[in-house]
Amino acid sequence: MTRLVIEKLGAGGDGVAEGQNGAIYVPFALPGETVNASVHGLRADLVAVLEPSPLRVAPACRHFGQCGGCAMQHLDDGAYRDWKRAIVVDELARHGVDAPVAPLVSYPPGTRRRLALTARVTDAGVELGFRRALSHDLVDIEECPVAASRLVASLPALRRIAARIGKTGKPFRLLATTTIDGLDLAVAEAGTLDEAGRRAATVAALAEGVARLSLDGEALVEARPPGVDVDGMALAPPPGGFLQAVAAAEQAMAALTLAHLRGAKRVADLFAGSGAFALRLARQSAVHAVESEAGALAALERARRAATGLKPVTTEKRDLFRRPVMVRELAAFDGLVFDPPRAGAEDQCRQIARSSVPRVVAVSCNPGTLARDVKILVDGGYRVTGVTPVDQFLWSPHVEAVALLEKPRPRR
Questions:
Q1: Residue 365 appears among annotated catalytic residues
Q2: What is the assigned CATH class of domain 114-228?
Q3: Residue 132: what pLDDT?
Q4: H or E segment to which residue 266 belongs
Q5: Per-residue pLDDT tens for 234-265?
Q6: Within its chain, how far is the Cα of 67 from the centroid?
Q7: pLDDT beyond 60 at 412
Q8: Does the pLDDT value for residue 134 go beyond 80?
Q9: Residues 6 or more apart from 26 whose CB is under 8 A from it?
Q10: Residue-range domain boundaries for the chain
């Protein structure tokens, strides 16, 4: 057993103490605390808090400390918000980007419309929940304070459906989303179902009132289109397709984007997904949406055709990692937004940096790659007018951010 004094919080939410051989990371410990910990290399398991921080609060969930979904339920809300904003501030500074960072935009518990769960069918029943932190162990959950009440209420139904699908005894993934028309359930890695198994899963889903059940990207049954509201337009993403975790966070990020790009005649939406930005932008600008997933573009097209009052929207299936939109192509646009996966958009940003697109919005769920990409744009002549951190991943170390950039037009 080792006695440690916690000096600060790391970006991952661990308390950081100074050991004989450098930093030691202690999950669930807070700055200023003295703790007993079992140390193994650079990490330690918290055994006891000997001198607690005044910022320590009671966790909201009975599973906290075991379930790996949340890291920071034990920290006072004000300090938590400061820590979350600092993740973005520190990454920008580390990459040499001088930018004004707004206060954290946050959302209360019970607002997550989507949960990425893990399930396993055993002789004793169905386990359903999240992985333990830094482990393959599955923590079976009975509640989840971050999730919408409809999702929490559906946990028993999800167990019953999982029992019909999981045939291998191995863990499989289950993505559950609340939609206007009911639960959208996307299952992956559960093994191959024979015809009888597919029928049983379909019957179970219909009995539980599920709007759509899909297996490895294939819809087994769609009782109703699982639509989400996008500024009054109904959008049904493809099975397992990308969707922002909190609807209000999507609206906030879109509002920042629309305000920054107001007045642009033609906007490029890169890594467009199913069109959460493109559809809203089409209220004020012609939009060209670029995305590598055909199913996502098809969903965007369906929503566009059903909507009224939109300016022209064109789509292009294109892998922007392999084939970024080039400088000469970017000349057609006077506004641009990009929202890539966690890996960021390094190669694409090198093209944007060389372009004359006057206004750019960078959206990312990874502050590290966002800061790297923004630095590329700054080095190419852009100026950051503001960065807004958006906390749609409550009590986790993950934070979304929206960066607004401008490039002065060259003098003639």
A1: yes
A2: mainly beta
A3: 87
A4: strand 266-270
A5: 999 999 999 999 999 999 999 999 999 999 99
A6: 18
A7: no
A8: no
A9: 4, 6, 14, 15, 16, 17, 35, 37, 43, 44, 45, 46
A10: 2-56, 82-107+246-406, 114-228
Four-way CATH pick for 2-56: 2.40.50.140, 3.30.565.10, 3.30.1490.190, 1.10.3720.10: 2.40.50.140
Element containing residue 218 per DSSP (H, E): strand 218-222
User: Is the pLDDT assigned to residue 25 strictly greater than 80?
Assistant: yes
- Count of CB atoms situated within 10 Å of the CB of 189: 14
Identify the architecture of domain 82-107+246-406 in CATH: 3-Layer(aba) Sandwich (3.40)
* Average pLDDT value for residue range 45-74: 95
Strand partners, 126: 121
Helix (H) or strand (E) holding 374: helix 367-379
Model-level pTM?
0.94
pLDDT at residue 231 in the model: 95
On the 0-12 / 13-18 / 19+ scale of CB atoms within 10 A, 48 is exposed
Amino acid in position 237: P
Q: Which of 61, 70, 144, 365 is catalytic?
A: 365
